[in-house]
Amino acid sequence: MARDFFLIQLAEKFDFLIYNNTDFCIVFLKNCFEIETEQNNEQEENQKLKVRECNDLFISYDFDEINAIIIDELKTPILKSRFFTAMSNYLDDDFAVSDLQDFETLIIKRLRYLLDCKILAIFGTDNFKAQY
Hints:
The chain is an alpha+beta fold. It has helices at 2-19, 65-73, 80-88, 100-116, 125-131; strands at 25-28, 33-39, 45-52, 58-63, 78-79, 120-123. The protein has a three-stranded antiparallel β-sheet. It is 45% helix and 23% strand. It is globular and about 40 Å long. The longest helix is centred in the N-terminal third of the chain and has 18 residues, at 2-19. It has a single domain, classed as Outer Surface Protein A, domain 3, CATH 3.90.930. It starts with a helix and ends with a helix. A hairpin with a 5-residue loop joins strand 2 (33-39) and strand 3 (45-52).
């Protein structure tokens, strides 16, 4: 429940920092979710993000390969600027520079989604530099 109160304000803070192109630290909240793999009728595997809520109840969210890559890159706290550099390493060599803005927009939307799922937190860069 404390996570709920803490994270409610972070969505607005995230939007503000993104709008102002301000760097911040992204922290992955490791022990509050699990990733479940299911098979559908066509024998395709689908993954769901199951986030632990109060009373050990879970809420399921859609989860895909891009989210899995993001979570993998967030194993340790990281500055947004370094995270975007790390994510750009997954792009093909022939990726058009003109499409970079669209890619960054996609990553911002995914981070916001994971923040709304309550598995990410963000902090100012002062907190990050003091700890890492």
